[in-house]
Each structure stands twice: as structure tokens, then as C-alpha cells.
From TrEMBL:
Residues 1-23 form the signal peptide. It holds the Pfam family UDPGT. Keywords: Glycosyltransferase, Signal, Transferase. The keyword Glycosyltransferase applies. It comes from the Eukaryota. The keyword Glycosyltransferase applies. GO terms for molecular function: UDP-glycosyltransferase activity. This is Glucuronosyltransferase.
Amino acid sequence: MLSRCFQIVTLVTLAVIHHCTCANVLMITMGGTKSHKIPFWELARGLIPRGHNITFINAFLSDFYLEGLEEITPSSYVVYVRNFTNWDLVGARIKGEEPVPFVDMIKFGYEACDVLLSDSETKDFLRSGLKFDLLVLDGAYPECAMGFVHFYGAPFIYINTVGMYMGSLSTAGNPTLYSVTPFLARPFSDTMNFIQRVQNFGFYMVANIMHSVMTRGKLQDIVRQYFGPDVPGIYDMSRNVSFILQNGHPVLTYPRPFLPNVAEIACLHCKPAKKLPEVKPA
Ligand SMILES: *[C@@H]1O[C@H](CO)[C@@H](O)[C@H](O)[C@H]1NC(C)=O
Ligand SMILES: *[C@@H]1O[C@H](CO)[C@@H](O)[C@H](O)[C@H]1NC(C)=O
Ligand SMILES: *[C@@H]1O[C@H](CO)[C@@H](O)[C@H](O)[C@H]1NC(C)=O
């Protein structure tokens, strides 16, 4: 009798613990290419079996059904991104050109934010009364999504999808050593000569200034227009990121100093290798 009672108490306790530790997670990537979604999907695939519900806002229509994952793809945002980012990233590299002109990156930043936040599907979603326990944002471009962080008043983490991009890591306090950390759009490695280090420094400076001009000059106002005038400074908010899943690895993105709240997760989406077919010698 006692052991039966103990069994029931244990089951009820476990059920309560299970219920209490399940969370509603909101993921947002505003990346201009579909590849940004892949590490988010992998994280979702790991969280759903543990009882968490995932809502995922992005610009690319979902192409499979996964129980526990709901993708929100506001239509004007989908159309805008598809039209804007018909980039030929590989062809430009082969021709030795910049894959995406700096000016276009800046323009994409604030236009995409305005299109997403003004879409009626986004507005309906915000009005639906859903509550979230955690937001997972794309570290490649989390600034616009800070509006959602303020709106839901929940903690947030990043997946830094672009492993070579240092901007968000740097804002969160991670040192970016210009002498050994190559700028993402330069073919430098962690061993640079003096001239390359100077060029590397120059690229970081220009990128940081343009980022700051876009964020303070444009995004801040757009986010406040949709989420209210009391939204704090975007950089003040993004500095508070709780944890960063960094899509890199020393082998791929060079050794770097990271704070303890950064975990390198390159190859999160990798599957075990298949065996190669055997070739019989002729
Ligand atoms: C997740 O979604 C299911 C089905 O909509 C719901 O029954 C469950 O309560 C949700 N879980 C949480 C933590 O809200
Ligand atoms: C598509 O992009 C082009 C050039 O970037 C722009 O002129 C045009 O207005 C855009 N069309 C739509 C439907 O957004
Ligand atoms: C950042 O976090 C600190 C400590 O929790 C808090 O006092 C501060 O208000 C936060 N800043 C913003 C802009 O959210």
C-alpha cells in the first residue's frame, strides 16, 4: 500500500515538474537568406521533444510540418525579402566583388524592420495575447527584434548564425581583437601582417560606424514607432543578452576569447556521415 502511494506521489510530482518546466519559446530570425533558419530548426528539434512549444518568425515560408513548431511568415515581409535578396553570393566572390554592397546591407536593415512590424499578420500576432518565456534571436541582426523583447518582457538569447560576424558578440562584451580576428568580409586569417591588420582595423571601424548610424539613426525610431516611446536604447537592450549560441568553432572561425555565456555550436545541424560506397579495384 505504502509503495503504491509512493508511486502515485512520484508520478504526480514528475508530472508537475514536467508541466512547470515546459516553456513557450519565440524564435526570430531577420536574416536575408533561408540558411539562417537551419540552426533555429535544429534547436527547435531538440526543444520540442522536451515539451517546449516553439513559434518561429522568419521571412521564408515553412516547407515541412513539425508538431510543436509554428512558423509565422508575414506575407509582405516574405515578398520584401525575396525581392531584395536575390543575391548571387558565390558568383560575386568568384568575380572578386563584394557579395552585398554595404549600402544595401544598411538599407535592408531598416526597411526589413519597417516591413515586418507594419505587416497586419505581425500586428495580429502581437495582439493575440500569447506569452513567451524566452526569445531566441538571430545574432546576425537582432536589433529590430529588440522590440519583441521589450513587448514580451522575457529573457533572450542569440544564435549567432553568421559565425564570422562579431558585432553582436562585441556589443555583449566579448573582446574583438582586430589583430587576430578577421573581419567577416575579408579573406584574412588569424595570422595577418602589419598592413593586413591595419586594413582589418579599418573595415571594423567603417562597419561599426555604419551599424551605429543605422541603429541609432533609423532602427531606434522604427522600433519605438511600433512598440511605444518607452522602448530603451537598442544597444542598451542588446548588451543584456543572457546567452549566445555561437555558430563557430576554433577550427573554422579561429580561436577567440569569449565570455562564459558563449557556447560554440558549429555543426549543430550536422548529421552523422554516411558510409561511402565501396569501390572494387578493377
Ligand atoms: C504547447 O501547445 C500545446 C498544444 O497547443 C498546449 O496544449 C500546451 O499547453 C502548450 N505548452 C505550453 C508550455 O504552453
Ligand atoms: C524589388 O526591388 C527593386 C530593386 O531593389 C525595387 O525597385 C522594387 O520596387 C522592388 N519591388 C517590390 C515589389 O518590392
Ligand atoms: C539590463 O539588465 C540590467 C540588470 O538586470 C537591468 O538593470 C537593466 O535595466 C537592463 N537594461 C535594459 C535596457 O533592459
